[in-house]
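Attaching the record inline, Q. Sequence:
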Amino acid sequence: MKRANADLRDCTALVIDANPVSRSALINVLRSMGFADVSQTSRVVDARQELESRVFDVVVCDYHFDNDSINGQELLDDLRQAKLLPFATVFIMVTAECSYLKVAEAAESALDSYLVKPHLPAALEERILTARHRKRSLGHVFAAIQAGELAKAAKLCQARYLAREDFWLYAARIGAELFLQIGDHKSAKELYQRAHESTPVSWTRLGLARAELAAGSVSKATRILDELLAEDPEYADAHDVMGQVHLEQGHLDLALVSYRTALRITPQSIPRLQKHGLLSFFSGNRDDAMNDLDRTVRLGLKSKMFDLQSLVLLCMVYFDKKDSKEFKRALANLNMLVQKKPESVRLQRFMRICEVLLALLERKVDECVRAAENLGREITAETLDYEGAVNLLAMLVRLRRAAVPLPQAEQWIKDLSQRFCVSKVSCEILCVAADGDKDYGALIHEGHHVISSMAEQAMNHSVSGEPTIAVESLLQGGAQTGNAKLIEMAGAVLSRHSAHIADCDNLSTTVSELKARYCTQGSQLGLGQSQRSAGGLKLRA
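Structure, as predicted:
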């Protein structure tokens, strides 16, 4: 009998295979190699829960599942998008000949290896040991990631690539992704470009598109994506990024088409169901939103990929349909999950917004008014972000339609628009959330005009050789409105003209203080905090 590998004795493994015979065979191979802790599952939904609840050293997953509409590759994609699969985990796909090409292409960017059926036990062992060697070679990188030192990990990967040390291309992929996460778009682009020149494959080109988009080069990102999708119309990740490009330009209809295409390719993807459902809601396609978000709840309520914003939107859909039963069911799910994180201001606000609508459904108008007034006072709170502003606006529109007496509502809309209209696109998204209410739409556009005028007047001072006045006026406007655009502009003007500004240090301190108060929440509309840095649906200033 072959001797077990002592190095694997403390390692954990998970086998995902619907066929009991092949599953048993894979388990036997792993145990003969030395794995003492081997878990197994026959269904993708169970595998998803296992992989979200604990970390495995090795995962061996079949590609095809007869009774499941999701395959092993889609499971891997979901985990990767939501950043729930550690880089240190070895993921090996087992595939039949008919799906070989798809799996081989996926191996370029996500898989550690793959096996084509039928295979010998020795082949699986060789794949695992080779992948484990690669992971150990990059152990210092994974240790830095685990410690939260993403910049250090990225630079380690960059150095390995430049020195052409073992697994340099694999390191380049990880490093470029890390550079994107920390906002170093230039380094990410350079690393993707170098990797593409060495090995021109789909993931390097998609990475270049993502880096260009993150750096604000929308036209360059679009050109790369157009070429990618012309060659491979079924590249779901590319459709995701194209959807983001359309969002950046304010083209919600085109973004919806891109996200719908990605969802068609991977119909059981929880992140994509949520993205499509959210955009359908704010595009006025409430039936599509209801179907997508309800399916998301059924598929992923217990998943870490699931975001509670889905339940907020479901509550609003059922409120509009006057479906009290389904509204209360969605609210009960929301309440159950919010109770698990009582410290979260974001989730508590979700619950309070839905409770306002519940009070109105139950015709408790006084209770509804009191709760709405409390939320309205939070529009100037430093903890409010763009997502919260959109939800509050959607709530206020529904109360206005029901003729709920809120005399302060117009002032709230003015404050909200002046704070969160940081661009034309962000202004239009707020108008979409106003759901056709002409009065509220006019107030939002008025708020955007106020901010644009403040910015224009300040820049005129800067161009006229009065940078101090420009910075001071921008800071005054930023402090009054909480608008991140004005505060960021003040910092940019101060940095550019610091040599000509006498009170530079004090003004710099003010900029930092205002950024800490109003710019850390961001101006993003998205589902899930993790998705905002993982290619999820987002709207940046």
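The first strand starts at residue 12 and ends at 16. Residues 90 and 128 are 7 Å apart (CA to CA).

More tomorrow.
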